[in-house]
Amino acid sequence: MAAKLQELLTFLPLKDVRFADTAMTGNTWFMSSLNDTYEENEAEYLYFPSEASKGRLLCIKGHDMEDGSKNSYALAWPESLPDSATLVNGLTFVSDTYYDYGNLWHGLCAMAPLVGWSLKNECLKPTRWILFHWGEFRDKMGSWIQHLMHANFGEVKIKGFDGGDGDGPYCFEKAVVTRHDLGGMGREKKLEVFDLLRCKARSFCGLDPEGKGKELLVNERGVPIIRLTLLMRSGSRSFKNATAVTDIFARECARVEGCILKVAQSEDLSFCDQVKVMTYTDIVASPHGAQLTNMLFMDRDSSVMEFFPKGWLEHAGVGQYAHHWMANQAGMKHEGAWWDPVGQECPSPEQDLQCFLFHKDGKVGHNETLFAEWAEKVINKVRISKQEQLSKNFSTKPWLNSSACAC
């Protein structure tokens, strides 16, 4: 019977091109024959072996990096693994994403469900990671997200097929598969996951997991300290006149006792430098871009100010609100955004995609009056909030009451 089951085993394409046009609207082209497990507040996932898989293991064959339909998968009983298959021991995390693992925001969205699954399951850690993008194999993730996963899970071993020859097949003793990024994960769970990642990253970088110590919360006069960070970027979506923008924020910060301004160039910072800068930040002001994902490392209830080039409001679609969503998911306060009204006009205004590509890498101007008023408003809002906390118990941090550092 085992031999017959081996012969009957059929490998299906990892990427089902029948759903190529609907991959973002409820269907999935990755392992399309299988249905996810849904649990309230949790991300969608598949687990092998399980009752849903009838005790079968996940087997994967092929590691094509250009055509996911050439890679394949099957489910096999442990006693009837396909000929020449290699059994890979331990727990394997398998991720497929519609976006990529290089960008900070997209990488975080792809990894968060696996962190959430681990948190729910006694903090189990993977032996290896198998990464796919549209069913196409990927052999690395971006440095930032790999450091973050290392901080949470320990060494990150990507691919990690042990033994075997060529394209496999490889069958996994235990495997968790996620393919919808944050998927159905509820806000409560997202807060729990981001609290954990914040805490682990701080510990990994030698910082107090609780963030700013009490001695850093007030100055010698007992006035709350407000740390304002201008997180700059170079190239696309950078400020046209960074000096002028810095002068505006410096002037407004100087008007409020206890306000301290720091200017940081995101691409010049190591992972732990980014963690440190943002741990000691109460307000971050930055152009739209992946560097804003570092808001993850600020305390809950910190504030975010965001700036966009000309044309984004009209043509960039809902994706421009990614960091607004993240602020909500991580427990931050998104204090609004400013879209530059000045710049070249798109030659084909009726074509959103073409106009977005035209404006995508534009630079951000400034409005001195508006920026000054906005900065004043946010700084004073934070000042009042900190004074209220001081009158109660300044050392109490709301995020510490969650599952932070539980693993």
UniProtKB/TrEMBL annotation:
<dbReference type="GO" id="GO:0016763">
    <property type="term" value="F:pentosyltransferase activity"/>
</dbReference>
<dbReference type="InterPro" id="IPR049625">
    <property type="entry name" value="Glyco_transf_61_cat"/>
</dbReference>
<dbReference type="GO" id="GO:0000139">
    <property type="term" value="C:Golgi membrane"/>
</dbReference>
<keyword id="KW-0328">Glycosyltransferase</keyword>
<feature type="domain" description="Glycosyltransferase 61 catalytic">
    <location>
        <begin position="209"/>
        <end position="305"/>
    </location>
</feature>
<protein>
    <recommendedName>
        <fullName>Glycosyltransferase 61 catalytic domain-containing protein</fullName>
    </recommendedName>
</protein>
<keyword id="KW-0808">Transferase</keyword>
<dbReference type="Pfam" id="PF04577">
    <property type="entry name" value="Glyco_transf_61"/>
</dbReference>
<keyword id="KW-0325">Glycoprotein</keyword>
<dbReference type="InterPro" id="IPR007657">
    <property type="entry name" value="Glycosyltransferase_61"/>
</dbReference>
